[in-house]
Amino acid sequence: MGALDEGHFCVELQNGMKLDVSDLGLEKESETIVIEDAVKVLLQGLGEDVNREGLKKTPLRVAKALREGTRGYKLKVKDVVQGALFPEVGLHDGVGHAGGAGGLVIVRDLDLFSYCESCLLPFQIKCHVGYVPSGQRVVGLSKLSRVADIFAKRLQDPQHLAVEVCSALHHGIKPAGVAVVLQCFHIHFPNLESIFLDSKHQGWVKVLVSSGSGVFENENADAWSDFLGLLKFRGVTVEKILTRDSTKRSWCPSYSSSAAKISSELVAPSPGMVAAVASILKSLGEDPLRKELVETPSHFVRWLMNFQNTKLEMKLNGFACGRTDLLKPSEEVCSHNNEQMHSELNLSFWSQCEHHLLPFHGVVHIGYFYPEGFNPIGKSLLLSIVHFYGFKLQVQERLTRQIAETASSILGGDIMVVVEANHTCMISRGIEKFGSNTATTAVLGRFSTDPAARAMFLQSIPNSITSGIL
User: Fold this and answer.
1) Distance CA 170, CA 162 (A)
2) Cβ count near 141 (within 10 Å)
3) Count of CB atoms within 10 A of residue 361's CB?
């Protein structure tokens, strides 16, 4: 069926962007309205004003993102594969396997994303899928990606996703065998209390899973050796692939022992917020009573409460006492006429986009001048500022400004802040710009008028990858 037959077409705007007209009808659908109402309950539970600028359209944005990210529930594999099988002969003479009769076909490095069925946080996937043709026919390569995406666009766990993709392709193509390997990366979001206690917090949980059918059904089969041999430069080995039983225990951070301990010490999640998340699950086409989803609303609400609206004074613990109190002179006091630049680099932060209720994370770099002979301020206080402003509903531009203004009130007026972040909304709303990174700056005092000072500070920032997943 063509795109126009489905009432799904695009209008090109004057600036070259395309507007998906089907989104206009999406806003009025009952499922979207239910999700919007549920998101309003969640925002109010965080102590937020749902009518303030920046949040007015958040319920609709969240509803559209969730429905886009779970559209796989309404798609069928047969509609993708049907008509995409093409005749292709095998070897004409000799002994061997090639073409449409036994030649291994692999599509590697398919970037996908899905929502974790245990906590509703998005996770990233590097998918490798292959099959051994039979019956002298092959399938269009793009269909392997599309079938994988159908199942990724549902609430998932890695092993179940691998099994579903493998089974669907085996039944749809009817090959000699199908192999699927997934490298999955789940964001491990700390809470405000634990991050001060764990300076070595790992920001990602990584897992490698596989599924095979036909000639790949036996994990010791020669076909697997050939398949994995073509993935050897991607860090994929038999030893690293988890078994089905171990994946569930080691995957979602909401089931980790540390998360369970912290959750047990917190107040029980609001029943109204939990019910709101359950209504979202139902609107997406899921059964909130399915055993894998029973605890999901509580997990999501506990995580969301990390971003409850709070006041700065509660977190600085009285340290906002001015530059002269904090910049203590060193034992050898030199002339105060000269100032030195100090850079505090790679301060990790975690935050939540207020436009889409999706995580973003990265690092903060702070540069400032202090008088020669005085000691730079302690890193822990700057971390407190970064974490406090990070752990709330945010946009990166505001986060950068708030850190700069607060640091300026303590360190003096000459401050430069650079924030580098990866935004989940860049991969999970149909945009799917994997690996993209956003940088924002704030310059105050001398940095705003001195290009050489800005250049010196920027040169001190290491060339790092903030995503940390590959």
Assistant:
1) 12
2) 12
3) 24
